[in-house]
Hints:
2 copies of one chain form a homodimer. Chain A is mainly β and 131 residues long. The first copy, chain A, has a single domain (6-99), classed as Roll (Ubiquitin-like (UB roll)), CATH 3.10.20.810. The first copy, chain A, is built from 2 helices and 8 strands, in the order ββαββββββα. Chain A is globular and about 45 Å long. Strand 7 of chain A pairs antiparallel with strand 5 of chain B.
Amino acid sequence: MSELPAWLDEVAFDANGLIPAVAQDAASGRVLMIGWMSRESLALTRSTGLAHYWSRSRGRLWKKGEESGHLQRVQEIRLDCDEDVILLLIEQVGGIACHTGRESCFYRRLDDNGWVVVDSVRKAPDEIYRR
Amino acid sequence: MSELPAWLDEVAFDANGLIPAVAQDAASGRVLMIGWMSRESLALTRSTGLAHYWSRSRGRLWKKGEESGHLQRVQEIRLDCDEDVILLLIEQVGGIACHTGRESCFYRRLDDNGWVVVDSVRKAPDEIYRR
């Protein structure tokens, strides 16, 4: 992991070496998901133009869409005032960011009866993930 | 902390009892900030309609805008597919979410020269925070 670019040193990764990254659809403005990034995944996101995250559950680098084809083409990378959150403005290939087949992972809204699913499934997960 | 509502039990707080919350301006669509929420701050956000966070640096509950007046009126609370991120759709009072006096905390964009400030200050911080 030598030769990491200087701008990476301004990013405040947490004690686990990670930073949360918000992915926002540049066209619709919808917030699609949050992923966690390592230094390497952020560097790769920059160098390839495709969003890369760190999967905490699988403990490995993860290119968004590597299985589903639902890549995220990055248009802008932004950093917040505390240098500890990343915002990606992206084009969401396939219009689906969520593993449930929905556009956004934020498909439940709190109402008087609790969390209610308010967004529809665009493509069934078993059509997305052929194993 | 008794009598917390049932919907709170579906929210996956981390080992520190916190969950990240993205605040998005419901009108402009801009992502303004990420804050961290405790169970209590999320419950208060719901019951008061004003965004409450947990300040990790100060170690206390924090009503957004309590000093600056830049309250966040909550229109929607959403939960992601893993139940471990909150999205707030809000009206940002004063049009300023960032302590630097900018609309959004994400005012730096990565370009060929590194992180570049691309958003202007709407109000000087010393006019916002009178001590």
